[in-house]
Amino acid sequence: MNETTAWSLPGIPSLLALLAGFVGAVFIFVDGASSRDPTGPVAGFLLFGLLSFLAKGFFQVQPNRGTVMQLFGCYSGTVRHAGLRWTNPFYAKRVLSLRVRNFESSRLKVNDNDGNPIEIAAVVVWQVVDTAEAVFQVEDFENFVQIQSESALREMATSYPYDSHDTGAPSLRSHGKEVNQHLRDEIQERLGTAGVNVVEARITHLAYAQEIAQAMLQRQQAGAIIAARTRIVEGAVSMVEMALEQLSVRGVVNLDEERKAAMVSNLLVVLCGERGTQPVVNAGTLHH
What we know:
Layout: E1 9-10, H1 11-34, H2 39-54, E2 58-61, E3 65-71, E4 74-79, E5 83-86, E6 92-97, E7 101-104, E8 108-111, E9 117-128, H3 131-136, H4 141-157, H5 176-191, E10 196-208, H6 210-250, H7 257-272
Antiparallel strand pairs: 1-5, 2-5, 3-4, 3-6, 7-9, 8-9, 9-10
Helix pairs in contact: 1-2, 4-5, 6-7
């Protein structure tokens, strides 16, 4: 079932015509009563009742809202034209918002692709694009959107690890754009039959579950320490190499292999140590 346009007329001209009809009904009633013709009051009364029933056909459509029309249980179409409108008085009407809406899911506890328990939540931006599907394909489309969005969030979270740990593989923490697009596609696939378009889906909360948060924090800290130490050592080796090369080129001092090894050891201690070093002054000769 897809949305169609329901039949309706502009409201202002229809209202003027109805008012003219009321004036005519009053005139017929008064004229018949004055002429003592019994058909006149009866005709005026019947016309007044008919016009009162036709007045039920007036309705208003606000901007970015649609009015779904049903005739004796059958879908007759949707009116999206904003303003005062008039249509068949027998139509049953239901107003739907076509505006962009959003909601934030609750914090879900799921297992990521590595089996680690995590907490995740997302915000979903959506709007109704097909009023017929939204009303007739699902029981409660707003509740349907919320439940299916959380189901898609669970499914998406199990497809990625929380962190790639420098492997370069997509993860929930490092590949936000890719993960958000995957989440949007997962939600859209579930909501396609409900006449809903998912404008955007974005993760708003991501963390390890409380029972493993401390262990994972220590793991991250250990990784950061290793990475920092690796960079420090690489820099220290480069500086030692440059120092030995400069001493040799300039002829400042000639060192044998044993002295070079001692010098390298001392420089690495100085450059890689966490605390400031205390120099020892050798007042003797080079070989004492």
